[in-house]
Every structure is written in structure tokens, then in C-alpha cells.
Design brief:
- The structure holds two protein chains of two kinds.
- By secondary structure, chain A is mainly α.
- Chain A has helices spanning 29-52, 88-96, 145-173, 203-215, 254-270, 277-298; strands spanning 7-9, 14-17, 56-59, 62-66, 106-109, 114-117, 182-184.
- In chain A, the strands form three sheets. Chain A has a two-stranded antiparallel ribbon. A two-stranded antiparallel sheet of chain A has the order 3-4. In chain A, strands 5-6 form a two-stranded antiparallel sheet.
- In chain A, strand 5 and strand 6 form a beta hairpin.
- Chain A is elongated.
- Chain B is of the alpha/beta class.
- Chain B is 25% helix and 31% strand.
- Chain B is built from seven helices and 13 strands.
- The interface between A and B is large, with 62 and 78 residues.
């Protein structure tokens, strides 16, 4: 300020002497330091003079003064907060003149005749607590009205979420997204359709692919270095069964058996027989047996002696009749 | 698109702290160094950290890909600034060409705003000063500043350095100050057009006759010579944007509020020159046929005139 010819910025507690320059810098460091300290003391005294003459209030820790605003302008560290653009509902409400109404935290619930909270656990007039719904003439026969109501609610919630997302996108475009919300892009890339999105490989897929890659190596993946936690391959080992070169005593003709099996399979496939003789014979025999049993039961008097038909309740026992 | 919301209230509070506000938080400082540092520079950085204890973050790892003055070398700095929410940084490095190099920089919206590169010479650390321990300034107290020298106004680099130093050591901008809490001062003297001497002193208040105490300076802290090597000023548009202050309520003209009448305004109508106004031909007194004939005559007349 004037008089002391220093520029004092009280808001920053700063003093600046624009009129000082060194004609010759003092030769020794000590002298220089002392000179600076002297000048500094003068200026600090000037600041203190104006600082202590400000109106002060007494507080617990000492005298407190109210500082004026700083005069030297310094840049901000972040941009000024931008005002939020009105949401779709807010625009509509403004146009129609709808004003917000204050809602009470507790509402009278008719059903239980008590005061219950408006939102949250055990709320008043809950949609899900209605036990009986009157059937209307517009209701179809097979439709479950309760399920219909809950489906409608789900639709409403989904629609609400969508509108919320739209409003936030609008705010983000204007640069006024609320600080605690982030909009994250889900997997859809900038160009292309959903087909072009590289699908994230699942754990099983990765394991199977690793196995396949391993078997394509010369040693079938047996000596590959495994990462910690990697499971050993599932189908390790031989897939072909080779017969022993020399047949021992008790083995028999394995080769003959093997070739016979293959031949039978081939022949049965290519045979044009409609009738399988063996199967037909067994079927006939079984039928005959059943018929005989029935006849025997129907006329029990065939045997000479009048014996009571002892029916055993055990399923396993069968009385063999001649 | 998915909406991501913090799951805990604590996370929400932290995010809100870092949001842009009308009245901002204290500027935090990030102190880090490059691949090569000297002993002097190490102590400079640690002492800087001690001076700004409450709102400074010090990294101890070497950062080889940070070159503040090059276009590609700033990305790491901006990333760290964003992660730690620091808008000031001090980057130290040492090379043969630039020994004991200290780059002081500021960010705006986590992008580099401006830079000043200084060389540190004649550094004296806090330990080398002997003083009465009772005078030691408390951490977080608001310092006084004394800038001596006309070069701070005339030379561009020193003007910039003055602003940067003020921003660095200013601390919180407060409305009310406790007078017993003033106990430190930064004295910066311009030695030449490129060098300044920065000293940090404690204040001793002595009794004097009047209510204003007598000030005495006792050197406590680091003292160093700063030689300005390079500097980068912010671009015009960035400067304008960063210096914007919150809007003062715009004065609405022509609106007065009266207790009885309510909100009133005046309507100003331009002067109607009644004499020059043309009379209309739609004279209600005449019978319809005559009226219409008169109107058609006029319109026919206008038509022929325009042709």
C-alpha cells in the first residue's frame, strides 16, 4: 500500500517490493543473506502492521481477524461446475406447471390400520401384499393377474432405468455428469454388430483349447510346462488298443475275436433280412408259456385231486406246474 | 452403456471430494523424480515434502518416461495427477546438461497448465540451521511472503516463477486467520534476471509499545538459489478458462419488486405517430358492398402501382 511503497496482498499475506535492485551483489554469502533478511523483516513488519490493525474478534485460541479477498489471481485447479441440463420429466413438469410435492415419511395403511413408512421394508400400500384381486370383465381366462401385475412392475422399472440412463447421457454430453457416477461402455465396439464382438473365452474353453494345442505337439503334450494351477490333460494315453505281438497260453485268439466282432457288425448292418430268427423264436416261446399259464389258471380242475389254489404272495416263488 | 455407482458411502464421499466445485479444495502437490537424482536434489525433494506435509504426496520410484517439456512425456504426469488428485507437482532430475534440475508445474483439469524449470544451487538443508526449537513453524500454518526485486515485474520468467511459488506455498485460502498462528515467512530475493534466493524463516513476535508486535526473522528452513532455465506459459485460452471466477448473479434490468404491487416491470412502446398513420379502408359504418368495393379498389390500385 502507499506510504511503505510495497505492494501488499493481504488475502495471500504477500508483500512485494518493486523498487529494489542490487547494484552490486554482496561478495560474501553471509552479507547477502543478512541483507535479504533485513529487507524481509521490513516487509514482514509492513504486512503485520496492516494485518494487526484489522478488526479482530477474540476466540478460544487467540485473536482472529477476517482476511480480505486475495488480489493476485491464481488459476483454478479444476473447471467450474457446469449446471445440469433438466431431465425429460423436469422439462415436462415445467411446461405443465407441475410442482414437486413433499412426501411424508409415514403414511396411513388402510389394510393394517397403522402408520407405515412410504418406501422400503414393510411399506404401506405395497403392491405385492394385495391378497385378493377382483376379476374384471376384460381379464382373460387363463391369465394369472398377480403374475401380470408383477410383470407390469418389472416393465415399469426397466423403463425407468432406461430413462435414467438417457438423462445421464444427456448430462454427460453437456459435461455435467454427477461426480459419483460413471458411464461405462458395455462390450459393444464402436463399429460393427454384436457378432463382431470378440467373445470372452470361458475357463472350460481355455482348458480344452490348451489340451488340443498340447496334443498337436510331437510328444502329445506330455512334457509341456504347466502353469501353476493348470489341471493335467483329461484324455491322456493311448486311444488305440494294439494286440500283443506274441499270444501267451491262456489268452486265446484275441485277434480272431476282434475280427469276428467287426465282421458281425458289418454283416448285420448290410444284411437285408427282415426277420431275426433267434429273436422270433424266443418271442414265440415266451408267448406260448404265458398262454399255457393262463389256461392253467382258467381251469384249475384239470388236476385229479381237489386242491385249493394256494396263491403265494411272494413274487419270487413260482409254483411250477407240469 | 452401464451406470457405475460407488457401492459404499465412503467411496461416494471420496469421489465428491474430488469433484469440481465452486470453492475449491487446497491444491495438493505431487513430488517425484526421474531416473537420475543427486544427493542435493533428494534432500530438496524431501524437505519440500516436509514443508507441505498435509497436502503432498511423495513418490519414491524412479520414473524414466516423464519428460515434462516434451510433448509425449507428460502423459504419465497427467495420469498421476489424476490418480492422486494433485494439481501441483515438483519433478526432480539430474543430468550433466541440467544439474539439480527441478521442474515445478501446475495442472488444470489434470492436464499440464504451465511449467517452470529451475536449477537448485547453494542448497542448505533444514538440519544445517541452528535455532531455538520453540520457534519452529508448525506444519500447515499459513506463510507470509516477501518478494524483493524489480525483476519480478520486469522479467517474464521471474514473474512466472513468482506466481508459481505463491501457488505452491500458499496453502488454504481462508477467510479468517488466527493471529497467533502466523509463524513462517518465505523471503524471495531476485539476485539477477535469472536467479532468485529463496529462504524460509520462522517469525518471532516481540513485544513493542503498540498492539502491533515487532517481527523478527530467524532462518530455519531450506535456503536455495533457484536459476530459471526454461519455462512454459499457459496458452491464452487455457489461461482465460482457468482464471474464470464463478458468475456473479447477472443484474436483471427493468425489474423492480414492490411490496404492494409485487414484481413490476415497465413496458416501453415506440412513439406512435398518429397523424402519419394511414387510415384503413375497412370502415364499419358503410354497408358491406361499399366497404368491399373500397377495399378492392385500394388493393387494385396497389397492384397497378407495383406493376
Amino acid at each position: 500500500m502507499e506510504g511503505s511503497s510495497y505492494q501488499i496482498d493481504l488475502g495471500n499475506l504477500m508483500a512485494y517490493d518493486p523498487n529494489h535492485h542490487f547494484q552490486s551483489i554482496p561478495s560474501s554469502r553471509g552479507e547477502l543473506v543478512n541483507h535479504c533478511l533485513e529487507k524481509g523483516t521490513e516487509m514482514v513488519q509492513a504486512i503485520a502492521n496492516s494485518l494487526f490493525s484489522l478488526p479482530s474478534t477474540e476466540s478460544r485460541d487467540g485473536p482472529v481477524v477476517k482476511l480480505p479477498l486475495p488480489t493476485t489471481k491464481l488459476p483454478r485447479e479444476k473447471h467450474l461446475p457446469k449446471p445440469k441440463p433438466p431431465t425429460k420429466w423436469e422439462e415436462f413438469a415445467k411446461m405443465k406447471g407441475i410442482k414437486k410435492r413433499k412426501k411424508n415419511k409415514r403414511v396411513w395403511d388402510e389394510q393394517t390400520s397403522s402408520w407405515k413408512r412410504t418406501h422400503g421394508y414393510d411399506r404401506a400400500n405395497d403392491d405385492r401384499d394385495i391378497p385378493i384381486l377382483d376379476a374384471k370383465s376384460t381379464d382373460e381366462v387363463g391369465v394369472d393377474p398377480f403374475a401380470k401385475r408383477s410383470a407390469e412392475k418389472k416393465e415399469r422399472v426397466k423403463k425407468q432405468e432406461k430413462s435414467r440412463l438417457e438423462n445421464l447421457k444427456k448430462a454427460a454430453k453437456a459435461g455435467a455428469l454427477p461426480s459419483h457416477i460413471q458411464l461405462a461402455a458395455t462390450a459393444l465396439p464402436i463399429t460393427g454388430t454384436k457378432k463382431d464382438v470378440p467373445k470372452k473365452a470361458s475357463k472350460d474353453e481355455l482348458e480344452s483349447v490348451a489340451g488340443m494345442a498340447a496334443t498337436s505337439t510331437a510328444s502329445g503334450g506330455k512334457f509341456d510346462k504347466k502353469l501353476p494351477g493348470e489341471k493335467p490333460p483329461k484324455h491322456s494315453g493311448k486311444h488305440r488298443k494294439f494286440l500283443p505281438v506274441v499270444e501267451g497260453k491262456g489268452i486265446g485268439s484275441k485277434e480272431k475275436q476282434q475280427t469276428e466282432k467287426i465282421l458281425n457288425q458289418l454283416l448285420s448292418k448290410s444284411s437285408h433280412e427282415i426277420l431275426d430268427v433267434n429273436k422270433a423264436v424266443t418271442m414265440f416261446n415266451v408267448k406260448k408259456e404265458k398262454q399255457r399259464k393262463k389256461d392253467k389258471d382258467a381251469n384249475p380242475g384239470k388236476s385229479g385231486k381237489l386242491k385249493p389254489n394256494k396263491k403265494s404272495f411272494k413274487k419270487t416263488s413260482t409254483k411250477k406246474k407240469p | 452403456m452401464q451406470i457405475r455407482v460407488p457401492k459404499t458411502k465412503r467411496a461416494k464421499r471420496e469421489l465428491d471430494k474430488r469433484a469440481p466445485k465452486l470453492v475449491e479444495n487446497v491444491k495438493k502437490t505431487l513430488i517425484l523424480h526421474g531416473t537420475k537424482t543427486s544427493a542435493v536434489l533428494n534432500s530438496v525433494l524431501t524437505e519440500l515434502y516436509h514443508l507441505k506435509r498435509d497436502n503432498a504426496v511423495k513418490f519414491s520410484k524412479k520414473n524414466e518416461n516423464i519428460k515434462p517439456f516434451e510433448s509425449g512425456g507428460e502423459t504419465s504426469l497427467e495420469f498421476f495427477s489424476h490418480k492422486t488428485d494433485c494439481s501441483l507437482f515438483a519433478f526432480g532430475s539430474h543430468s550433466k546438461k541440467r544439474p539439480n534440475n527441478l521442474v515445478l508445474g501446475r495442472t488444470y483439469d489434470h492436464h499440464i497448465y504451465d511449467l517452470v524449470e529451475v536449477g537448485v544451487e547453494n542448497f542448505k538443508s533444514i538440519e544445517s540451521f541452528e535455532y531455538d526449537k520453540k520457534l519452529a513453524p508448525k506444519i500447515g500454518s499459513k506463510p507470509l511472503f516477501a518478494f524483493i526485486g524489480e525483476e519480478f515485474e520486469s522479467v517474464d520468467e521471474l514473474k512466472h516463477l513468482k506466481e508459481v511459488l505463491l501457488d505452491f506455498f500458499r496453502g488454504e485460502v481462508v477467510e479468517s486467520l488466527n493471529l497467533t498462528g502466523v509463524d513462517r515467512v518465505f523471503v524471495c530475493t531476485a539476485l539477477s534476471s535469472k536467479t532468485i534466493l529463496l529462504m524460509h524463516c520462522a517469525l518471532r513476535l516481540k513485544k513493542s509499545g503498540t498492539s502491533i508486535p515487532r517481527m523478527e526473522l530467524v532462518e530455519v528452513g531450506p535456503s536455495m538459489d533457484l536459476v530459471v532455465r526454461r519455462h512454459r506459459l499457459p496458452s491464452e485460452s487455457l489461461l482465460k478458462e482457468a482464471m474464470k471466477t464463478p458468475d456473479h448473479a447477472k443484474k436483471i434490468k427493468n425489474v423492480t419488486s414492490d411490496v404492494i404491487k409485487g414484481k413490476t416491470g415497465r413496458i416501453y412502446i415506440p412513439d406512435q405517430k398518429v397523424g402519419d398513420m394511414p387510415l384503413s379502408n375497412n370502415i364499419k359504418g358503410l354497408k358491406r358492398e361499399r366497404r368491399e368495393a373500397k377495399q378492392n379498389k385500394e388493393s387494385k390500385k396497389r397492384k397497378t402501382e407495383s406493376e
